[in-house]
Each structure stands twice: as structure tokens, then as C-alpha cells.
């Protein structure tokens, strides 16, 4: 539909003009800094930043009901820049003109309800939001669309040229950074630093395919992050990890989409997220807060952050009930199938602390909770949900495991509805499924396969069959008929299929 076809009261708002007054706000000293520069930490105190719209109150002048109409009608437009996360332009990057926005198909990923069997087993209604159906097959594309649109805007302004974008990664960040940087080639080149042997082959292939320079170094993600931080401090590079506050802005779209998908009725929703580097849970809290402050939603949903017991510094921090006694302590991570969550010192921890406090204060009660789960449960839950029609990654399994811990602890009830985050596509982690099926997990993972979830191919070659089709040498005539008959009989016997009328199987 074209803007002229929409109700007149909405038409002036459908195509947003650049606006707002964005600035970096330091979470340490509270100073603000000019947005027209690449900053990742405060130049004055070194603390992480969030991006604040100093004119945010202008958005409150539009009633929440009208905002809902704007977003609902805007979803019918054919404008590429407004098809993705920038449907919510005024809340993400209002200063960026539409012609600078990079759109590769990210955002508005499916929210798929679990089948009845699975909901009965879990004990509540729940959905998966399949962020693995983003262009690079993970949720990281939301933040990259924001960060690269901002860099593209600065390039077009003449503030930047010949940009080298760098990131540390356990897989998904590098894939997204390389993809979005490649789209802006040759103005942007990309380099990624990965922990050697800690990235799946599928994830490693993605930045290589997008043309990024890939450097594998000893250690874990936290070590890679230190290298990237050193590069960004000494050299004129664009850092694309979640330390980049523009990444956080883009990932807020996850909260906006859930609100819109559930008709802006969020009071009985429970949003479950793996934590990792803590950027995503920060963004989701921030997104719901913005919609709450502007009246687009009237209640803040519960949020549950989940960590593996092999990398759980955020969970440990919130185990201390007395807020005055809480002290954040990084942990040494152990091997985890939730590879993106194998982070012992999350960059966004200061953001989490600030946002959790604000979120709970606005709600008037505790609405953000944290759980820790075993590696065994992560794998078992991933396999369980995928056997019921989903495409959840290991982090999606982590989300379900975390939800069930929350249910057992009385944090959530069967009267609520949960939305679980599957952060990437299941195919990125197919190697872990193979280890599970073959019972080859190294001991440090602490995973023992459940026979009920093991599934392996069956090789069919009846012993008394002397001839089989070969590439370039097909069987013909009686030999082919015999082959088909014997193989089909073998399969039928294996599956215990018997001849008879359909009613025989009722």
C-alpha cells in the first residue's frame, strides 16, 4: 500500500524524517558525548556507554494508541528502510535518514507457538522467537543493521572514510559483522578475531565467505575481546561488538516486535533470554522500557536471563539478595555447547545492573530474574523442542531449560505466556548434535546422551542383495525391480509396517 491509501490521521507519521538529539551517556560519570564520533567507552572515566535521545520526551506527545496505529500501518509499507528494525525508526536511530539505512532482511522473525504436546510437557503456553531466521542466521543482525547504518550515515556525511570494522566473536557476531560490512564494500572492510577451536565449522565459514580477514588466537572469547579493545583504543577502527552502543539500539527491536506481535498486551508475558555478553538482555529491557514510558504498552513483561553453570557471572551476582552487598566477579568459563554464552566477564554488565534497577523500579516490583542451567539440560531441551517442530539452537535449548528452572522456583506460572529466544539457527550447532548422537562429548562438557534423544541413520543393504545402483551405473529391468522390492520390504519390517487397510492402524 502507498501512504496516500492510509487513514489521514496516520499519513503524516508513516515516513519518518530524521530527528531527535542523540548522545552517548556514560554509565559511570553520567557525562554525555557527541554522537558524531566512534566511541565505545567514556573518554573521561573508561566506563561503557548507552545512547540517549535528549529529546525522547517528544515521543510522549504522541499517545500510545496512535503509536500502535503508526507501527501497525507502517508494516504494510513497501519502503525497504522501514521493512526491518527501522519500522521503529523514532525509537532506534531517529537521526539516521532513511537512505542511509542498511536493510538486508533482518528483523520481524517468526514467533512460533509450541505444539500442544510440548506445552503440556512444559506446563505452560510458550513460543519460540526464531532469530536464527535473520540474514546471517542469528540475532546479531539486529545490532549490525543499526551499527552499520550509523557508520554508513557518517561515511555519507564525510565524517569517515575507508573504515576497518573489527570484532571479537564466538561465531555469530563475526558472521553478522562480515555480512553487513561486505554489503558496504569497498567503503568498509572487516576483520574478526576468534578463539581457536571454539567456533563451529559452520560459523567459521560465514565470515570467510563474506570476505572478512579472520584471525584465530589461543584462549576464549574474553581474550579475543581484550585484543579487539586494544585495537580500538590504539587505532582508528570501528568496533562492532556489543560494547558498541549502537548495537544495543538495534537489538531493542526484539522487544518492540514482541510487543506488536502480542497486540501490545505484555503484562502476562515472560521473555526468556540467554545472557552471553549481556548486550541482548540489556537491549530487550531498554526496548520494553521505551515502549512503557511512551504508553505503547501499559505493563512491563517479566524477563528471565539464563546462563549455563559453566559461565554464570551474572547469575552469581544476583544470587546476593542484599543489593548493597552485591559484587560482580568475573568467572573462568568451562566448555559449553551454548558457545555464544561462554563469556566470563560480560562487557555489558554495568548496563545490566543499571537497566535491571530501572526496569524493576518502573514496574514497582521485581520483574527481572536470573537462572542457571546445566549443560545436560541445554542439549536435552534443544533436542526435545526440535523433535516437536522447532529449529532451536543450543541457546534456544538454554532458554527452555531456564524457563523450567524458573517454573520450578515459582518465578513464573502456567497462567503466563513465555517467549523463548532461539538466538541462532540450529544448523550452526549441528556438530554438537552429532557429538550427542555418537556419545563423543569430551568429559569437560558434562553431557551424557539420553537414549530417547539419539537418532542416527540406518544403512540399508540386505545381505542377500548382490547388485545395487551406482552413480552412472543404474540398475534396469528385473534387477532394479528386485532391488526396490527388497529395500522397501527391509524398511517396512524395520518400521514394523504391516499390510492391510488404513483402519488397521487406527
Describe this structure in words.
The chain has 506 residues and is of the alpha/beta class. The protein has three domains: 111-135 and 252-453, Rossmann fold; 139-247, Rossmann fold (3-Layer(aba) Sandwich), CATH 3.40.50.1100; 457-506, no CATH class. It has helices spanning 11-14, 64-74, 89-92, 116-122, 140-157, 172-183, 201-209, 221-234, 245-251, 253-261, 279-293, 313-318, 349-363, 375-386, 394-408, 430-437, 477-494; strands at residues 22-26, 32-34, 49-53, 111-113, 125-130, 163-168, 188-195, 213-217, 238-239, 269-274, 302-308, 368-373, 417-422. It has a six-stranded mixed sheet with strand order 4-5-13-10-11-12, with helices on both faces. It has a four-stranded parallel sheet with strand order 8-7-6-9, with helices on both faces. A three-stranded antiparallel sheet has the order 2-1-3. Helix 7 (201-209) links the parallel strand 7 and strand 8 (213-217). The longest helix has 18 residues, at 140-157. The protein is globular. The model has no long low-confidence stretch (mean pLDDT 94).
List its traits:
alpha/beta; Rossmann fold; 3 domains; 6-stranded mixed beta sheet; 4-stranded parallel beta sheet
Amino acid at each position: 500500500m502507498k501512504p496516500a491509501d492510509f487513514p489521514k490521521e496516520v499519513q503524516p507519521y508513516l515516513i519518518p524524517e530524521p530527528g531527535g538529539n542523540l548522545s552517548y551517556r556514560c554509565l559511570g560519570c553520567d557525562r554525555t558525548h557527541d554522537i558524531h564520533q566512534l566511541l565505545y567507552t567514556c573518554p573521561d572515566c573508561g566506563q561503557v556507554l548507552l545512547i540517549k535521545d535528549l529529546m525522547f520526551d517528544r515521543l510522549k506527545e504522541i499517545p500510545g494508541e496512535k503509536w500502535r496505529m503508526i507501527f501497525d500501518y507502517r508494516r504494510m509499507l513497501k519502503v525497504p528502510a522501514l521493512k526491518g528494525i527501522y519500522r521503529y525508526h523514532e525509537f532506534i536511530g531517529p537521526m539516521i535518514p532513511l537512505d542511509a539505512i542498511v536493510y538486508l532482511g533482518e528483523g520481524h522473525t517468526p514467533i512460533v507457538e509450541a505444539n500442544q504436546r510440548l506445552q503440556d510437557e512444559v506446563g505452560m503456553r510458550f513460543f519460540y522467537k526464531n532469530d536464527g531466521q535473520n540474514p546471517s542466521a542469528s540475532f546479531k543482525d539486529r545490532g549490525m543493521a543499526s551499527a552499520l547504518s550509523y557508520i554508513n550515515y557518517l561515511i555519507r556525511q564525510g565524517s569517515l572514510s575507508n573504515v576497518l570494522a573489527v570484532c571479537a566473536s564466538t561465531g555469530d557476531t563475526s558472521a553478522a559483522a562480515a555480512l553487513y560490512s561486505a554489503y558496504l564494500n569497498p567503503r568498509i572492510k572487516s576483520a574478526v578475531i576468534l578463539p581457536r577451536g571454539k567456533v563451529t565449522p559452520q560459523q567459521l565459514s560465514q565470515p570467510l565467505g563474506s570476505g572478512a580477514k579472520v584471525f584465530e588466537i589461543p584462549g576464549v572469547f574474553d581474550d579475543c575481546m581484550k585484543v579487539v579493545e586494544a585495537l580500538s583504543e590504539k587505532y582508528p577502527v570501528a568496533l562492532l561488538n556489543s560494547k558498541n552502543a549502537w548495537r544495543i539500539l538495534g537489538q531493542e527491536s526484539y522487544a518492540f516486535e514482541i510487543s506488536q506481535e502480542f497486540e501490545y498486551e505484555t503484562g502476562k508475558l515472560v521473555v526468556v533470554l540467554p545472557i552471553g555478553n549481556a548486550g541482548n538482555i540489556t537491549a530487550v529491557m531498554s526496548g520494553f522500557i521505551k515502549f512503557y514510558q511512551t504508553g505503547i504498552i501499559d505493563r512491563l513483561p517479566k524477563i528471565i536471563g539464563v546462563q549455563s553453570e559453566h559461565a554464570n557471572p551474572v547469575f552469581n551476582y544476583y544470587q546476593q539478595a542484599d543489593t548493597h552487598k552485591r559484587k560482580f566477579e568475573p568467572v573462568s568459563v568451562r566448555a559449553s555447547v551454548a558457545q555464544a554464552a561462554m563469556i566470563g566477564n560480560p562487557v555489558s554488565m554495568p548496563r545490566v545492573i543499571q537497566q535491571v534497577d530501572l526496569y524493576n523500579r518502573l514496574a514497582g516490583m521485581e520483574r527481572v530474574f536470573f537462572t542457571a542451567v546445566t549443560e545436560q539440560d541445554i542439549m536435552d531441551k534443544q533436542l526435545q523442542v526440535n523433535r516437536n517442530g522447532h529449529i532451536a539452537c543450543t541457546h534456544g535449548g538454554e532458554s527452555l531449560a531456564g524457563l523450567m528452572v524458573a517454573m520450578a522456583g515459582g518465578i513464573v506460572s502456567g497462567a503466563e505466556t513465555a517467549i523463548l529466544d532461539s538466538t541462532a539457527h540450529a544448523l550452526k550447532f549441528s556438530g554438537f548434535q552429532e557429538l550427542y548422537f555418537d556419545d563423543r562429548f569430551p568429559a569437560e562438557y558434562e553431557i551424557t546422551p539420553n537414549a530417547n534423544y539419539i537418532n542416527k541413520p540406518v544403512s540399508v543393504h540386505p545381505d542377500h542383495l548382490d547388485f545395487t545402483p551406482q552413480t552412472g551405473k543404474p540398475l534396469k529391468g528385473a534387477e532394479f525391480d528386485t532391488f526396490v522390492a527388497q529395500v522397501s520390504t527391509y524398511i517396512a519390517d524395520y518400521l514394523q509396517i504391516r499390510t492391510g487397510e488404513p483402519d488397521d492402524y487406527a
